[in-house]
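Bench log, entry 3. Co-assembly request; chain sequences pasted below exactly as received.
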Amino acid sequence: DTAVSQTPKYLVTQMGNDKSIKCEQNLGHDTMYWYKQDSKKFLKIMFSYNNKELIINETVPNRFSPKSPDKAHLNLHINSLELGDSAVYFCASSPAPYEQYFGPGTRLTVT
Amino acid sequence: GQQLNQSPQSMFIQEGEDVSMNCTSSSIFNTWLWYKQDPGEGPVLLIALYKAGELTSNGRLTAQFGITRKDSFLNISASIPSDVGIYFCAGPPPWAGSYQLTFGKGTKLSVIP
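Structure output for the full assembly:
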């Protein structure tokens, strides 16, 4: 199926740990994104890559580091996890400005 | 940052009723997008609007790009239980680059069978 996929779907971990979330899209899109959705369902952009190059980097703690090994993948690595990092993280991709297609999300719970 | 204000925040309607929701901004937007998020899923793009005054339909959904370019509206006709979810408006803020979207806080729709 053509889609944006993320792994894992659920991630439960302890404070202080380091974890990664993977994202892949097989839509042939040039641009990929990471969003954070808080408990109130507010969606906020974190990062965006266009052709493996970082183009958006919002005010996100530097414990969060995106990595794009190729145009189809954008992974998110988080160091020293904190309780406040608990949220749902969405990957998205777009063929052109604006029309973004979202993955199913990764629910991160930090205990 | 720029806020997109969605109204209402939540609504309960009877199956078969029509639904209207809107999104407003204090700044002009050149594009408006409407997304729906089902529980436990990612947002899905419903309709994209690119021109002031534009009216676009997708099945029972109709969205309009406000003539002032500071608002947009989404209507759902003859609601059914699977319309349940959170509806988000989104648009590229005028100060940001082409690829950045800002989202409203959503309208949560509940449909009573």
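The mean pLDDT of chain B is 93. The radius of gyration of chain B is 13 Å.
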